Amino acid sequence: MTQHKHVTLLQVAKHAGVSRATASLVVRGSKNISEATREKVLKSIQDLGYIYDRVAANLRSKSSSTVGLIIMDLANPFYSELLIGIHQELTKCGQTVILGTTFNSYDTQSRLLSTMLEHRVGGIILFAVPGSKSEVIEQILSWGIPVVLLGRKVPGANCDYVGMDNVMGGQLAVDHLIQKGHRRIAFLGGPSQITSWQERKQGYDNAHHKAGINIDASLVIEGPVTRESGVELIQQILRIPDPPTAVFCYNDIIALGVMMKLKEMGLVPGRDIGIVGFDDIPEAVMLSPKLTTISSFARLMGARAATLLHERIEGLSMEPQRIILQPKLIVRETC
Amino acid sequence: MTQHKHVTLLQVAKHAGVSRATASLVVRGSKNISEATREKVLKSIQDLGYIYDRVAANLRSKSSSTVGLIIMDLANPFYSELLIGIHQELTKCGQTVILGTTFNSYDTQSRLLSTMLEHRVGGIILFAVPGSKSEVIEQILSWGIPVVLLGRKVPGANCDYVGMDNVMGGQLAVDHLIQKGHRRIAFLGGPSQITSWQERKQGYDNAHHKAGINIDASLVIEGPVTRESGVELIQQILRIPDPPTAVFCYNDIIALGVMMKLKEMGLVPGRDIGIVGFDDIPEAVMLSPKLTTISSFARLMGARAATLLHERIEGLSMEPQRIILQPKLIVRETC
DNA sequence: CTGAAAGCGCTTACAG
DNA sequence: CTGAAAGCGCTTACAG
User: Fold this and answer.
1) Helix axes B20-27, B35-48, angle to 10 degrees
2) Which UniProt keywords are given for this protein, alphabetically ordered (chains A, B) (predicted)?
């Protein structure tokens, strides 16, 4: 039963009294093998404790059964949700996931990309770091390895993209705040170099224009995507001469920090100050008051990216796709 | 610059005017290569757009640069934290992580283990599903592939284990509740088949015995590890004739559900009913009132497991280790 | 279904 | 450092 030395397919074949080619067909689940032969081989595999070497098989057949996934930061539940969606979908089609996290570092991303290419992944799902170059993407594509960009576009890169309508999301959020009577609305947090920030800001602008409200640039402050940054930014914005009556946060993580600090200051979100987040992470509903936010359907987004990548790997040659999910305003208690 | 066909090491060698063996030494960073030769080869690699094929190299040299990681559920921040710790540590030593999630399904775990073995991982970190058999572990070990068990022991399996002192954790939690004057303390949630549940329950028992309080079996209800389960269980336990005045939750996820429901019922955790959780997930501090809990140092636990696995892979042959982290009571606002 | 041969891209081992 | 050969474990292609 237990076997200490490495068992190869040839040994299995000998044990079963068939040829190596036949054994190979059996492990790959070929149709043109008689039931009797299949059973003989499977029994030998059991008896010898044989493990199929997918790595060797991939080398010979020039195929791959792995997919690289590069995201920013597991600590943000938004990415966990994304990962869940991707992982579920990819596992369904027999792909194994190689994981990498960049923590927003360009160098880390470069290193991860190299590592994954060296491991001969069949494709890559990339949540790109700010400042990513389209040349890098194009180069990978030119090697025949499909790339699906997730959440953030890379300007100039002509490849598949799955993301959401951030402009619309920003607009929905700010429309709602305006409709609730707010006129001075801050936009807090997030790095302004990335497209999703720019797009949400665009939505913020659009909503103001539509309502005929002038934008006060001092109400827009960027920052890293952490709770700490939220804590910091809300203090900063409340110190200005004419502070905002409501805040649109770049995402829920920022909103978490903002709310923590507000409660500490004795202010009640939703009563004393309006707040809208972005992403609808599971935590949003656990806060009190519950966070009003824009859902970005992270799991679905992940699943879509996985499906798209899988189609590419299967060689369905179509034009680069752009899948843009529509955001949804989830009104809860903070506005 | 850009290259459409697969470039091999032999082509690089020819381009650089050296032998294949020399080129191989360069890509592996060997010391006994002159600086001039190294530069020539590196230039050719650049010019041709060569990608080192780690898969082929691993096949030939019978080594591996990947590690398999099997956990339950990414949606629980406890596992995200674990993953962060593991991932950071493993990346440091040049290992690539292959990820799998079981969602508590034995079959899924079996499938993931097979897949990882077929991918020739150098080792496996396993957060074992309830009901895992020690034979399976022993078999993998017998193939020379180290396994580190994380968080949950598998009875009978003689291999490395990194976890925490759950008995002590349970005891700390319940000691604290007793010291705060509670006498009827519920233990809610978690699957009783897994060792960590049994150990926390043991701690619960110990604290009661130490204080000379009888245990009322009707105060202990198990259940799945979800917020929904927390919501359900707190309702159930408050309906009994003589309800508890405090609750020790199997973990913070359960506590989250419990607190949500209590607040909905108009009860204030910490004032009307005492609550202690387990794990100290980042959310614990974001709740209001903030959750008193037992920290299980997830990131550290992950890092320790990764280091241990790495040592094993390096072939440091020592007795199977048991690393048991000490839990810590974090007193906040719910008790 | 079998059998013998070649090859995937690399490393190993060795004589020079 | 070079060069030629063998081999890691598999698949491919083909004649039988």
Assistant:
1) 90
2) DNA-binding, Transcription, Transcription regulation
